[in-house]
Structures are given as structure tokens and as C-alpha cells.
């Protein structure tokens, strides 16, 4: 397995819309950090692994859906860094052998399927205690690596950016990565989050809770979720293909494709000032494309 590419590259991208609007556009390529440990998942896992080591625990237990990038990343990182891994997977018996879970199994992750009802209990102390009794001495990471050390790792995304910029954009699931970015920018810089989920207005509160200094230099857009989490959108598929043809940058249909669509749309609507510099954080997620294609018969 190859080494981690940290800091991740910051790449200037040419795209006709940004050219027309006189915007400098850069992509922070966290998708290139590692071929199997996708982008922001490494950021969020890094200090969690450190924490597990400091507690002398050699097994990681975490949660995710059947196509979860976080599950795939945790399995791969566990293998690489010498941790046993246990994945508590939400329902979906039919997807047991999908590409994400097969890869996780190949990396040695023990998969444990639970009903949707049980999965909803995943943040309650009773359920976590039950899992600890069942699986022994485990370090538990919440779904998506959504905890304070996950935010701490994500702060390094912003700290690595060594050019002046005005806007930084990031896709949101749990909001952990975006919280880290918000914590790492200056007060004269602005962060825009793009929710990949529908009806998750509580995400704003989540980020406020992780925010270290209260400033009004960020917001989350809920306008570009395209039907909600992991739904099929032909519009997004077409966008991903044309964006790749124009820029060479691959995007995933669950998170980064929606964000990039949103950024291009905002640029078309003159949201960004002329002459400004916009950074798009590419959080990775490309491992999910195969599962998406298989599920929907798509050809990304
Ligand atoms: C998991 C994931 C996200 C969401 O990150 P959060 O920290 O949960 O908000 C965004 N993009 C990609 C590619 C992801 O895999």
C-alpha cells in the first residue's frame, strides 16, 4: 500500500464558467491522499487512531451504511495501521456483497449487520455498552468519524492551504469535515457547505457546536442535495461527466458532484465576486462510484 500524500495537492483548475466570471478556482485534492483511504475519512480517523493507541486499544468499532466511505476507509486504515476493525452495518441484507463491503471484508473488517431500528440506537450509551460487552475492548468511533478529534483532524485541511483565498467550499454528511474547515479559516475568509442530505437543517447546529470561535463567515446550502442522500440523479451524472471532460477532475455522485454543481451554479449566478479565489475541497468518495453504478445501472 502506498504512503499518504500529506499535505494533499492544491491544484488550479480551468473551467469555462470560472474563466467567464473571472474567478480563480483551486481544488484541494484530498481525494489523492490515499487510494483506499478516501480523503476526509483519513482526516477524521487520524486522531481517533492516536486516541485508541494512547488508550492501548487495538480494535476499532464503527458504524455505517452498506455503501459507506467511512466503513471502507476504516477497514483499510485498520489493516494498514495494525488495528482490528468491526463494522456495524445498517440493514440492507441485499447489499451484503456490494463492492464497498467486499473490500472492507478483504481488509479484515468484521461485519455485523443490524436492523434499521437497532442502528438508530447507535449513539445511546446502553447500546454502546451492549456492543462493548459483545466485542470486548474496542475503541468506538461514531458514524462518519463525527467527534471532536474528527474535527481536529479536519482543521488540517484549512491549515495546509498556503495561498490567499476568499471562499472555501466543502460537502457535508455529518458536518464534521466542514466544522474543521470553519475552525481553520481567517475571519476575512468565507466557508460554504453543501449538504448532501435532504432535510438536515440541524446540520447548522452541529457545526455551531463544533465551532471554536463564533463568527458569521460561513453558511450551509441545502439547495443542492438532488433528492437526498445517495439518490440517483441523472442531472448530477451528466454534470460529473462534463466537469471531468473540462477539468480532468473525477467527482463522486453522492457528495462532491453535488457540491461542484452548486459551486458552478453559484458562479453562474454571480454569487462570487469577480477576481476572487474559490477553493473546492475534494473530500474523495470515489470508491462509492462502483456501488452507485451497480445499484442504478449508471455509467460513471
Ligand atoms: C463522508 C464524506 C463527506 C461528508 O463528510 P462529513 O464530515 O461527514 O460531513 C463528504 N464527502 C465525501 C466524499 C465523503 O465520503
**Helix proportion:** 40-55%
Structural class: alpha/beta
Second-tier CATH architecture of the largest domain: 3-Layer(aba) Sandwich
- Tally the beta strands: 10
Q: Tell me about the largest β-sheet.
A: 6 strands, mixed
How many structurally independent domains? 2
Please tell me how large the radius of gyration is: 19 Å
Summarize the structure.
The protein is an alpha/beta fold. The chain has two domains: 174 residues, 3-Layer(aba) Sandwich (Rossmann fold); 106 residues, Rossmann fold (3-Layer(aba) Sandwich), CATH 3.40.50.1100.
Question: Which key terms come to mind for this protein?
Answer:
4-stranded parallel β-sheet, 18% strand, Rossmann fold, 300 residues, globular, alpha/beta, single chain, binds pyridoxal-5'-phosphate
SSE arrangement:
Layout: E1 10-13, H1 16-20, E2 24-29, H2 39-54, E3 59-64, H3 69-81, E4 84-90, H4 99-106, E5 110-114, H5 116-119, H6 125-135, E6 139-141, H7 148-160, E7 167-172, H8 176-184, E8 190-195, H9 203-210, E9 218-221, H10 234-247, H11 256-268, E10 277-282, H12 288-296
Parallel strand pairs: 2-10, 3-4, 3-6, 4-5, 7-8, 7-10, 8-9
Antiparallel strand pairs: 1-2
Helix pairs in contact: 2-7, 3-4, 7-8, 8-9, 10-11
The structure holds pyridoxal-5'-phosphate.
